Fold this protein.
Amino acid sequence: MGIKVDRIILRHIRMPLVHFFETSFGRTYERDIILVELNADGISGWGEVTAGENPFYNEEWTGSIWPLLIHHVSPRVLNYEFASPAEVGKRTSHIRGHNMARGGLEAAFWDLQARINNEPLWKTIGGGTRKEIACGVSIGIQDSVEQLLEKIAVELAAGYQRIKIKIKPGWDVDVIRRVRERFPEIKLMADANSAYTLQETDRLKKLDEFYLMMIEQPLAHDDIIDHAVLQAKLQTPICLDECIRSAHHAEQAIRLQACRIINIKLGRVAGFAGAKAVHDICAENGIPVWCGGMLESGIGRAHNIALSTLPNFVLPGDVSASRRYWKRDIISPAIEVSTKGTILVSDQPGFGYELDTDYLEHLVVRRETLQ
Ligand code: OSB
Ligand code: MG
C-alpha cells in the first residue's frame, strides 16, 4: 500500500533563542522556522525546514522556502501515490537546489509513514543501531574568550561529550590556544563555516598544534577541490558540511581525499533518502559521519535523533538538549541530555514526542493550507 497526502499545511513560526548564536556569517537572535504538516486520511506527519533566516549558510532562507513549497513542491506531491517516502525526493529532483525546502517536506513523509505504520521513525528509516545517541555542542562566537571558556565549562559539566567552537579569521588560533590550555583533554573541534581561503593555509596549519578532532568546512561552501589541496597539507582531519549536498558530492569528496569526516544535515541533503545515501557512501569508504544541527525546534531535533541511529553515525553530533536553545520547546517532553552526554532514543510512534500544540499555534506568524 502506498502513501498519498491529501492536504499540506505550512506554518511559519517565530521562536526567540535563549541566547544569540554567532557564526562566521553573523548573529541569530530568534528563529523563523517553516513547519510542514502532511495529512493522509486523518493522520498527520511533521517535518521542519532547516533553512536559516538569511541566505548565508546556503542560498535558502525562510523567505525562499514558502513560495518554493507552495508553487513547486506541493503541486508535485499532493494526491500523488508514492510507493514509499523514499520516492518523494525523486518527484521534486527536477528542482535545482532548494534541498532544505524539499527536505523538510520529505522528512514529513517519513514521519507520516512511521505514524501510519504505528512505529518509531528510526525504524521506518532503517535505523535503530543504538538506543542512545552521543551528543556534542556547537558554541557560537562569543564577545570574549573568558565567556567562551565559561560556556565550555558549563557544557562539559552538563556531560556533553565533545565541544565544537565556531571560528573565523581573528577568532581562531589564539582562541583555540586558550581553550586548549584550560581544557587539554577534551574532544575539541572547530567550525569555520567557509570563512577561509587557500591563501590562509599557513594560518590553518597552526591549528595542527591543538590536536583537534577535525576542522569543519574551512573553505568555500561549494569548493571540494580546494579542500583536497588543504587536506593534503593539514594533519587535522577536515570535515565537510556545506559542500556535501548529495551522495555524489560525498563520493567526489572522498575520491579526491578532500575530507576524512562528513557532517550530515537532513535539510542540506534534501531529506532522509539523501542522508541515508551519503551515510552509505561514507560507510563503504570508512569515512565516519555525525549529525549536524541547524538550531532546530523540537521537531527537527527529533528527526535528527532518528537519523543518528544509523550505524555509521559513530561520532558525537550537534544534536543537543532543547533547553540550550528554547525556554519552551514545541514538543513535549523537551529533549534532554543525560549526564553521560547522550539522548535516549524514543520508542513512541513517528518522531517520538508529543507536539505542544497550544504553544506551537501561539508562535505561528503565517499559515497556508494546500489541498
Ligand atoms: O555549520 O553546523 C553549522 C548553526 C547554523 C548554521 C550552521 C551551523 C550551525 C551550528 C549549530 O553549528 C548546530 C546546532 O544546531 O546546535
Ligand atoms: Mg558546520
About this structure: The chain has a mean pLDDT of 98. The pocket of magnesium ion (ligand 2) is lined by residues 191, 193, 216-217, 241, 263, 292 (CB under 6 Å). The chain has two domains: 3-118+356-370, 124-344.
